[in-house]
Every structure is written in C-alpha cells, then in structure tokens.
Fold each of these.
Amino acid sequence: MDNSICQVYEDEIQSLEEEIKLLAEKYEDGQQESIFFSDEEILMSIKTFQKEFQGPSKRHESPSDLKAELESVEKDLSFLMKFTGIQFTSHSKKTLEKTRNRTMQKHRLKGNCHSLSFQLEFQLLETQNKECVSAVITDLSIIMDSGEDSDMRKFVSSIEEHGNLLTFFRSLSSYAEWYEHRRCTFLHFK
Amino acid sequence: GVFTHLEMLEARAHEAAVQQEEKEQEEEKLAGLKARVEELRLRRDELQAKVDLQQKGQLGKEGVVSDAAQPSARAVLEWKIKSVKAMLQVFYLTGNVSRFACVLPTAAFWGLLDVQRTGMPGWSGGWGHCTLRAASPTLMDSLPSFAFQKLSLSLQEHFSDQIEGTLQRNSLCNLLVFNYNVSSKSETFPFKVRLLYGDLSCSLPTEVVISCTPDAPASLAETAAAHSDLFRRVALHKAFRSFGRAEESGD
C-alpha cells in the first residue's frame, strides 16, 4: 500500500532533519573556532557598537546589555580560574553525532594547573531523557608534561581507565599546589 | 426494477467518487512529503558544502556576517561572549565547579546542573539557578561566600528601590536576612524576610519567615503570606521581578 511509501518518506525526513541539525552545529562550531578577535578588537567593537546604536532599542539586546553580559561571564571565568588554579589555554570540540536525544562530541583541551601543563582528549556523550541530561566520558587520554614521574603515570592511567575528570582535576589541583609549595621551599633553602 | 437499478448505479458512482477523492488526497500527501524530502535534501547539501568549505579553511571572517566584508561590532561581541561561555562550560564539563545551591541571577547560561552517576555534571535546562560542585576544599569554602556576595550585589543592583540596607548572611552562608519595602495604598511598609537554605542541593529556601512592623495594616498579612509562598517556590530574583511588576500594575 501507499502507507509504506509514506513511511519511507517520513523516515527519510526525520533522518535528514537530524543530519541538518548535526551539520548546522558543526558549522557553528567551526565558525566559532575559525575566527579570532583580539582584546583590542573586542574593546573597539564595544565602542563602535555603542556609537552605532541610537534611539530606542529595537532589538532585545542593546550594546549595554551585551557589554554587561560579557563582563559578567568574564568575571565568572576569572573567578573560576583563580580558585581552581586551572587555566584552559585551548579548547576545541567536534560534534560527531547529533540526534534528538543524543549528542556525541570530541573535546580537546590544553591547559595548566599552576605550573603543571596538561593535554586532554575525550569523547562526551550526552543523553537526554525526560527532564535531565546525563553526560558520560569515554576514550579519555591525558598527557602530562611531568609525565616521567611514575606515580603521575600510574595516576593518569587509572583516571584514563575510569574517565573520571573530576577526580583528575581535584587531585591535580592539590598536587599542583603542593608542588608549588615544595618548589618555593626548595628555592628558599638555596 | 428500474429504480433499484438506478439506486445501484448511484451508489457505485458515489463510491467511485469517494475512492477518487481518497486517491487524490493520498497523492497530495505523498507529493507533499516528497517535496519536503527534496527541500531538506537541498538544505542538507547546502550545509554540507559550507562545512566542507570550512574544513578546507576557506571561510574566514567573512563567514561571520551575512553581507559585509567586515564583521559587525555586534557579531564580534557575540563571538567573544560565546567563547567565554564555551570556556566556562569546559569548567563544568571537567567538574571544576562547586556544589552549592544558590541563586545567581547573572547570565542565564548557568542553567541547572545535575550530577550524574559518573560524577560529571550534566545540563538539566532551567535558567537562573545554579547547583555547583566542589573540585577542591578551598573552592568549597570560598564559593558560598562568593556566591552570596554576588547574589547580594546583584539583588541590590537590580532591586535597589525595593531592598533596604544590606543583606545579612551567616557563616555557613545558608541564611539570608534582609528588609524590603512593600507599598499599600500609597504608603510603604518594611517587610523583614529570613530565608534559610537548609538543603544544599536545592536552590530554593527550606524556610521562609516574613515579619512586618506592628503598625502595619492587617491587609498586609495577606501580602506577607503571598510573598512567603512565592519565595518558597521561585528563585529570589524572579520573586522580586514579579513584585516589581505587581506594583507597576497598581496592585
């Protein structure tokens, strides 16, 4: 019957819609990463935007709204970096799969915690069910600059096996702090 | 004889007409679906081409704006906000945020995090609430006071005409006490509210006590009850916003 042809079309429509969502996200991510504006350019844009904008606000976000939002998120970021001692110097993500309930992304992170540098790569699978989203980390690989240390290597392998980023950063944070203390102490005695 | 025959012919004709109509409807539906498929295929191919081009690195800054060769100031700012937010998200992803229930009426970005079995925070949608999770003892200690500082500054900034004086908090940072003004019949009366956030995993207070001055009119007791209920149900900044709106509409 024609019902089967209908079904075929409907299935294709659904798969095309998901493909389009995935491609749109890939494009967005790519756009975001392919461009870069320096701090001066950002400052100049703020000034230009405020000048350009005259009269009653036609759009939702006026220049002062955007500027306020930028300041707010930058303050939050600098707070987090200050308190965790962690600074992420580069981050790239690739969307591998995107359906209605599942998103699979590959992340690459570089950064340092106090004086210790690290590089991470992992896959993140986000599944949506009812009201909550669950996130699972797989394929975690970590490279530490101070990787020659055998204890560090053991620690890193165990983290890679369990995919527990929280433990990694928590331990790295306190290890890095003590590392710093030790370094300062030794310097003091020189 | 003749009439029965005529009736039969009529019935057949009617049935044929109905069948014809159904057939046409089906064909229309199929045509519609086919058109949609083609439309989507076209869009998919366009996007694919854009992504391929991007991969080859040919779409530079031009890709940001629709027509002009120079990205607009707004586009630049939006790019910057997006990249800072992405970095913040990395902090969440990697579990580097503290688990403390508080209301941060700042960027709607914070959303509501739900800690899953893997110990990784995930998104649960929602706006203006924040449940954070500790990565280190220092962070856990500092975040409540930071969060409260931020909360009080935010509240005072946005609702300065309603909130009197400074917000008080206790050392555990789970108790918030402040005064705010309520107007009734062109007179204003101070309400003193005491919010206890007894459950750290919930961003709403577990206990709300509102008291008014003894000379306040009896009608205000109803208002106090309504406000008390509101504080229990919605985030603090939302509650204040709705008070503001109620006053504007001349409640």
Amino acid sequence: MAERPEDLNLPNAVITRIIKEALPDGVNISKEARSAISRAASVFVLYATSCANNFAMKGKRKTLNAGDVLSAMEEMEFQQFVAPLKESLEVYRREQKGKKEARKDKDKKADSEEQDKSQEEENEDDDERMEEEEQNDEEEVDN
Amino acid sequence: GPTRLARLPLARVKALVKADPDVSLASQEAIFVLARATELFVETIAKDAYVYAQQGKRKTLQRKDLDNAIEAIDEFAFLE
C-alpha cells in the first residue's frame, strides 16, 4: 500500500528537540503546534526536492546533488540557509572521507599481514570496494 | 551551531525524496543537505511563530501562532 507523501512523518522526538533548542528556556510547545510544524517540515522536504530536481533537470543530470538543493534554497527564498548548509556539507564531506580512509587503511593493514595475497585477489577487492562506494554515494530512488 | 551534523534520520528524508515520481536518483550528499535544511527550517518557523506567542504573553507555542506566522511570512506561502 503506497503512503501518501503527506503521511511520511519525521520523528516527533527529533522535531521537538529542534524546536526546544531554537526557543528560549522555559517555553513549551503544544502537541498541536508540534504536529503542525512536523507536517510543515515534511512539506518543506517535498517542495525542496521538487525545486532541486528542476535544477538537476536543467543541468541535464539524472542525479539530484547537493548543489541542486542549495539552488533550491535560494529559489525558495531561504538564502540565509545557504552559508550554514555549505559549512555543514564541508564537515560531512571530511567525515565521509575519513571513513573511506579508515576503510582503506584497514584493508591495507590486512593485506600486509597476509603475505600470500595474489594480484588477482587484490583486484577483486578493489572492485568490491568501488561498488560499495558507488552504493554509498548515490541513494537510488528507483522511480 | 551550523557545523552540527544533521539529526533528522537520513532514511526518513530519503523516503520523502522517493515520494517524488520525477526524481530518479539522489546523491547521499543531497539527502544530507536536505535533512540539514529541514532542521534549519524547523528552527526558523518555530522562532517566527514564537513572536506571536510573545505578543499574546504566552510561554506556550500554540497552533494559532503557527497559522499566524505562515499567513504573515512570504517564505511560508508554500505551506498555505
């Protein structure tokens, strides 16, 4: 059974925490207000996705990328988000790179411990890793 | 701060992106930036709505504060 897009909720606990951290101490939020903000957030994602996808299509690309999302923010008149989003993206990229380096180092260490590893085996491992990286880089949306 | 990593689970954001029939592929980075943008959006709309609660001398944010903010602010027109 297909879910309607509006039914796709973001977790209440996370939404509530973000709201509370944005507001002064001692401020409460009614359940109805929280619910309405959560729904608005879902609509925001849907609208931003559609907007971003227009930029991807303009660029004749099939894959929606981070730049498309940033362009969407400007288009939606949320220019003030662009700078903090760029910063967050930098941190994210560094972390992802760190994860890949750690994986490579771990494999290198394993290789050096196994002195009998044949050239063919090593190539297979490289291919496997590339496949894995591709899967990590592109979230196939399958439409 | 702005460098804090997204706390909205990327899987949920991805599910929303998948709901768009025109979208075929989205990079992991795109999903991340969307998640982070949504967090910023939630912060923004909560703060903007709170202005109305303050006007009403209330310390509890209510649904009507949201409605007022959405009606008053151009950037929230897509929510109407």
